[in-house]
Amino acid sequence: MSCKHHTPAHVSAKSTAGATLAATLAESADEADATNTSNLATTISAPVKETTSYYRRTLPDNLVSFTSPDGRKLFKESLNEGYAEGYFNLAGNFTVQSEPAYCGPSSLAMVLNALEVDPGRTWKGVWRWYSDELLESCRTESDLKANGITFDQFLCLASSHAQVVAKRGKAATREEFLRDIQYVTQRDDVFMVLSFSRQALGQTGDGHFSPIGAYHPGTNQALVLDSARYKYPSWFCDVDKLYDSLQPVDEDTNLPRGYFLISRRDAQLDLSLLSSPGSEQPRQIGSSEVDLPERPSDVFPTKLSCGKGATCCSSK
């Protein structure tokens, strides 16, 4: 007799019901897996939405990258001939602008720190220092981030902290522009900031501010320390082309761009000697100056501005 396992009737019925339940659950699980697999396939096959971003632009062929072999050669020769005297002051205080439209405040902060001007207010902790987000123009913060500042607003803001001569477009001749570049690059107590059109030089974008760092007399090229390092490196450019880039009209003002000569107020330097009949001076300067001795931080102004009531605060 063979051995055979016997199952009672009531146990057999329960087993049958359990098998049915198990089969139902298994079928549901299969359907769920199929659905999940289908959804996963749809997700994988769906196009991925990409956010456009850039890591720098290619420098136009008419400009020489500062860090290229040719750019290094130009700089060494400029330094040897005495036309890069202020470079190290600027380079030692160089910071990339903190917003895409902050080229004006960034260039000004760089120059003021290079001149060792005490801002008379705390930056962070106990330290007094210039940074572009602390230099407030007459535009609102949102407008400033979107549009930057105009030539007149830069002049007004800069004049609140330093001695400034401004020359717009053809108000300065081509020869005068060259003389001014030669003058400032042989000193470390006065700097030039350009307000120029990128388009005129074959770059993307348009209005931009940046300081001059050196001059190469042999090739008549000037070094522009581009405040937007994330976009372009610093570059050498023919001075005649730089002069031409000052001439295009700014759509915000219907006036050409230009350049600024900036020095300390207490410097033994008379910038009036560099003034021309077309030089512009601020029509009213806001009172953001404070005494320099140590004082509690709560008495310093929260922003370093040109003053809301200044007539040069007009966007035009």
How would you explain this protein's 3D organization?
This protein has 316 residues and is α+β, with helices and mostly antiparallel strands. Helices cover 32% and strands 17% of the residues. It has 8 helices and 14 strands. The protein has helices spanning 9-45, 69-80, 87-91, 103-114, 141-147, 151-159, 174-185, 239-245; strands at 64-65, 122-124, 127-128, 135-136, 163-168, 190-197, 207-216, 221-224, 235-238, 249-250, 255-256, 258-263, 279-280, 304-305. Strand 2 and strand 3 form a beta hairpin. The longest helix is centred in the first third of the chain and has 37 residues, at 9-45. Residues 1-17, 283-303 and 311-316 have low confidence and may be disordered.
Number of helical stretches of at least 4 residues: 8
Spans where pLDDT lies below 50 across 5 or more residues = 1-17, 283-303, 311-316
What is the element string, with H for helices and E for strands? HEHHHEEEHHEHEEEEHEEEEE
Helix/strand-derived category reads alpha+beta
Placed side by side, the strands forming the largest sheet appear as 1-9-8-7-6-12-5-13
- In total, the number of strands is 14
Cα(first) to Cα(last) distance is: 113 Å
Biggest β-sheet description: 8 strands, antiparallel
Mean pLDDT: 80
Strand content: 15-25%
Helix content: 25-40%
Shape: globular
Radius of gyration: 32 Å
